[in-house]
């Protein structure tokens, strides 16, 4: 630990530390007969702030103490050169006056950020239209405005030896399970990595099942959604440089919940929730079911449907399993093409490509008409899920289901769903069962269906919140 020395020794230390940095500046000034040095990166500071809040006040009151003259809220003092060097890299200007054995760390960093915009991946028909951005302070500001309570706690960490990425953990002290918060603190504190590029890094470093396809943390770009999970006793992680926040711990059912469910009537919310869960099974099992029925178990279908199915595959070149694989792969290619291209071009490619490919492959007898319908329904079912991570996992799971069905028929598909169920039951997130069956009435109110708000008096029990009561007398007006 190097202590602050003379001006010359301090400047020599910084010059050696930043000798290869072309944007490092050491400026010498004479104010009121005293020599003053400023050290900073000119690409990180705001010159107008330096001029208005540092230099002009010093020129007016050159003999007063620095802390009485400089009018900057982000103001700290240190006598350690290592701390000052770190502060320079974070965009602060370091001020040193001759004759003083103290360094002044002044927050004059240049803030360049995009404005708060509407969510792009979690759009809703009703509700707020604010989304997180890449600036962590702005994200925390959004959350503070939504939760004006002294129990709303923000704990910050610095992760990454080189990147020094700022990470914030948010929770509500009076509701959250503190055992989970301490476990999260232990896992974050144990991360030793050069840099953190995105929340996905943290997801992989703190998750329990490293090789599971199923997402174990929920990503969101919506502050209102983060608030709703905080109110259930969960924690939210936000990282500097990313517009996505992580919600944990979550269960399997959390990935089928959407903010739209709570901005419409509970009848509609329940119907849409049930539809998403049905689409989970359709995405995984429909192509596999088509192959098994077509090749192994046609007796499971009505005779008229079997005749129609058989007539559609009579002149098809490839067996059903290759039909299904080729069409699902074609859907993935079209999907990737529409994402990577510019928005207007991507939409055109998606529509035109789907129509052209579907028409050509049927007319060429490469696939059957029924398989085109199955592939289209499978693709639409995967897009209905609110979570991109769950949607991607389900699409990948359809491939092993298809292989097993092509080898063992319907028995292979049933076996695959049994393996998935066993795997889900074995998973935990932060010590909480990932697949908590909604057997109790209180837990089922916001899993398989969305119960009326006035009936959800208790918080979900999966995270064991310290305060279970959410509503006390919601309809006291009714006598």
From TrEMBL:
Coiled-coil residue spans: none
Transmembrane segments: 274-296, 341-360, 366-384, 396-420
Biological process according to GO: spore germination
Residue segments, region Disordered: 459-479
Keywords: Membrane, Transmembrane, Transmembrane helix
Keyword Transmembrane on entry: yes
UniProt GO cellular component terms: membrane
Annotated InterPro entries: Spore_Ger (IPR004995), UPF0353/GerABKA_families (IPR050768)
Pfam families: GerA
Segments of skewed composition (Basic residues): 469-479
Magnesium is among the record's keywords: no
Family as reported in the entry's similarity comment: Belongs to the GerABKA family.
Protein name as annotated: GerA spore germination protein
Organism: Paenibacillus curdlanolyticus YK9
